[in-house]
Amino acid sequence: MVDDDWLTTNRENWDDRVRIHAASDFYDLPGFRAGGSPLRAFERDELGDVAGKRLLHLQCHMGQDTLSWGRLGAEVTGLDFSARAVEQARELAAEVGLADRARFVVSDVYEAGAALGGERFDIVYTGLGALVWLPDLTRWAEVVAGLLAERGVLYLVDFHPVTDMLADEDGGTVRHDYFATEPLRAEYAHTYTDGPPLEKTGSVQFFHPLGEIVTALAAAGLVIEFLHEHPFTIFARYPVLTESEPGIYGYPAGQPRVPLMFSVRARRP
């Protein structure tokens, strides 16, 4: 059962994270200002040329991924429920000279259609760690479909739900039910980056099997073009993982593997 307080709890938590994330080595805003990009090579390859396209990034946080697509030529809009994150994103856009091709809007994902005045986009992008904060994927997929122009595409990249089953300390012990439906209400003293403790420590997360995600998109009328499962991720979640290239972690040669990330592209007919 999902109580109505999940949105307020999570918004307060993410508002608090902004001050820590903006100063963290993990997000490396100085490096981004100098031209760095957090987008992975496979994302650029799978989505393809975005030049001249209208791209909406849902749950954009501080806007680095959004602005990276802008640097590749897209006309970008970032949307996030944290007003502090959007403020930081707007400042960052101005600092890197993209204020004329990037805008940022404060809104809950489920209210995105109204917040954007019914506007439609060539691309809707959703990045890593986003879906776990949404309780209703059927409604999410319907919102996405409503935001896409004719022949527009959703490009979704996220951590594979299998990874939430396994214990972080060894990556091999099954600790959590893959099909669990109850939300996880937790208190975490720190966010996932370096930096000081949080003041708003509460969060509510929701876990979605891969089949639920793909089925929600299909039910919303989108045509799945591909579902790719990847044997790598962006941090050393389990001790067995090794860094194969800067910022990319996977299993050593000969080690049995599970999928660590996945990507989906789905098109509105």
TrEMBL record:
State the UniProt keywords alphabetically.
Methyltransferase, Transferase
Q: Which Gene3D superfamilies has this protein been placed in? A: Vaccinia Virus protein VP39 (3.40.50.150)
Residue ranges of domain Methyltransferase type in the record: 56-154
Protein's UniProt keywords contain Transferase: yes
Q: Does the record bear DNA damage in its keywords?
A: no
The GO molecular function terms of this record are: methyltransferase activity
Q: Name one GO biological process term.
A: methylation
A Pfam family this chain is assigned to:
Methyltransf_12
Looking up SUPFAM superfamilies in the UniProt record yields:
S-adenosyl-L-methionine-dependent methyltransferases
The record ties this protein, via InterPro entries, to: Methyltransf_12, SAM-dependent_MTases_sf
**Descriptive protein name:** Class I SAM-dependent methyltransferase
What species does this protein belong to?
Answer: Streptomyces hainanensis
